[in-house]
Structure formats: C-alpha cells, structure tokens
Design a protein that fits this description.
Blueprint (H helix, E strand, L loop, with lengths): L11 H15 L7 E10 L2 E10 L6 E7 L9 H8 L9 E6 L10 H15 L1 H4 L1 E11 L1 H16 L6 E5 L23 H11 L3 H4 L18 E6 L5 H13 L4 E6 L13 H19 L9
Parallel strand pairs: 3-4, 3-5, 5-6, 6-7, 7-8
Antiparallel strand pairs: 1-2, 2-4
Helix pairs in contact: 1-2, 3-5
C-alpha cells in the first residue's frame, strides 16, 4: 500500500488469525503459583469454555474477576484475553474467570450475551468448588467485552441474580443506534474507525429492533438505578469514546457511583501494548479499582 499500511484482510478468518497473532506477541507468560484450568460449561446448543485462574494460597472465600474479552463480537478468545486483560490473578489476589463466548457472525445476538450469562451462572453455581465470595465479584471487559459486561449487569439486576460489586469497562461500545457524537466526528487516521464500528454492529445484530435491546445497548436502558459502581476508561481518538462518557453521566443521574477517565492521545484500547507509561498507569488504575471494590472502599459511603 502507498501509505505503508498492510492490506485489509480478505475475510473474517484472516482477520481473526491476524488478531490472534498480534495478541500472541504481547501475551505475558503465565504467572507462577497460579493454577490455570479450562472448564466446559453447558450452553444452549452446545458447550463453551471458561478459563479459571486460582492463585495458590489465596484466602478463601476469594474475590473474583469475571473477564469478557473484546474483538468486535467476531474475534478474540481465551488466549487473547490474557494479553488484553493485563491484570494477573496473583496480584489482586483473586480467582479469575475468563469466558470464551461464541462469536458472530456465526453466532449472532443473543448468543454471545447468553453465553456470558451462562458462564456467570455457572460460576455462582460452582462457588464452593472455586472457593469464591459471591459478594465480591468484579466484572470487566474491553470494547465488545465491556458492552457484554455492562449489559450483563443490567440483566442480573432485572433477574434478581447476585450482581458484581464493580463493573470495570474499558473503551465500551454501548449504543448500537450510533448516537454518540464521536462516531460522527473527524477520523484520527489510525486505529478503529467509525466504519469498522458499524461493521461490527452489522456482524453482531440482525435487526434494528436488536440495536435497542438492553442486552445490546445498555446506554439506552431507561432505568439504571441499582447497578454496580463503574470505572470506565475511554480514549481521546476513539469513535466510541462518547459511549463510555455518556454512560457515566447516565449512571450518575441514576445515583450509581461511577468514574470515567479519558486517556489522551490514544486510540481504541492501545494501552494493552506493554511497556508504555500509559500501559503501566492504566494497569495501576484497574488494580486500584479492583482492590477498593473488594475491600469495600471504592464507593463513598453516606456520612449520615
């Protein structure tokens, strides 16, 4: 290409292979002293895998980080999640559960969402085996995974299921009606584009009605009261930037504790690349949010 960029992948398989190779290059080595196991979870129409990380000697019952990988609903897996998540189980310390939900377009909405719900329910049902504290669950995800995490929190509230104590949302895409101004602004010329956001949406949903479903567009949910506290990270040059920033405003209006931090001079999720100042600082923010959520000091308590 004249501009030095690689050619666009010809099909989804090639895109997936390129993404897997990129994340493989930055995937950290496994932590010593952490038991890693892939477990099968029954879902409608088949099985999915969840990967559990249990640090040796972690105090039981332990807090849990429930992680949903990104990739536009059509890419990503358990291995890419290890590079994307950055947080290590032994550092918190906590049990970690990562979900290999089925991907679009082979499995369109609601399958990825339903898989995440099934994995979350499986985790609660196997709490004694995993040694977890159901009152100290944090749900986290990046990009599409952040969308699934936010939507899952709404569904858990509405179904009366044990909710997380924190939703940690990294560059979330939360409004499939594409109403955020950042999706209509000038392109940075790098990274995720508005056209690619539209493409991801087309791959994931079937109809315009799906786009307004609360399991797809949590930003459009009329009542956000009673949701877990949220920590949201957005990037300055990200077409979905305003989704996360609009969401924190909506949460505040509903009386939900939430913080949003915009990372300047960055495109969609680029702080997953290790070695930069931003990578280290974003990692510290995530760890601090998790530790405060787990020890009960994240959200300020009323003085009366």
């Amino acid at each position: 290409m004249a501009d030095g960029r690689p050619p666009e992948p010809a099909d989804l398989a090639q895109r997936r292979a390129q993404t897997e190779a990129a994340f493989s290059a930055i995937r950290p080595p496994r932590e010593e002293g952490v038991q890693v196991e892939d477990r099968k979870v029954e879902v409608e129409g088949g099985q999915i895998l969840v990967r559990t990380y249990i640090p040796e000697g972690v105090e039981r019952p332990a807090p849990v980080l429930f992680y949903l990988h990104g990739g536009g609903w059509y890419m990503g897996n358990l291995d890419s999640a290890e590079a994307e998540c950055v947080i290590r189980a032994g550092e918190i310390p906590a049990v970690m559960v990562s979900v290999d939900y089925r991907l679009a377009p082979e499995h369109k909405f609601p399958t990825p969402f339903d898989d995440c719900m099934a994995a979350y329910t499986w985790m609660l049902d196997h709490g004694d085996e995993l040694g977890i504290d159901a009152a100290r669950i944090a749900i986290a995800g990046g990009s599409a995974g952040a969308n699934l995490a936010a939507a899952l929190c709404v569904a858990l509230r509405d179904r009366g299921v044990q909710m997380p104590c924190l939703q940690l949302l990294d560059v979330p895409f939360l409004d499939f009606t594409m109403a955020s101004p950042s999706l209509r602004g000038p392109e940075s010329g790098y990274g995720l584009t508005a056209a690619e956001v539209h493409e991801c949406a087309e791959l994931y949903v079937r109809t315009d009605e799906d786009r307004r479903d609360p399991r797809v567009s949590p930003l459009l949910v009329e009542d956000l009261r009673g949701l877990p506290p949220a920590v949201i990270l957005t990037a300055e040059f990200d077409p979905v930037r305003d989704d996360g920033e609009r969401y924190v405003e909506r949460l505040h209006q509903a009386g939900v504790s939430a913080a949003c931090m915009r990372v300047l001079s960055h495109i969609h999720g680029t702080w997953v690349i290790p070695g930069s100042v931003t990578w280290g600082l974003v990692r510290d923010v995530r760890l601090a949010a998790l530790r405060r959520a787990f020890d009960g000091t994240l959200a300020p308590q009323p003085a009366f």
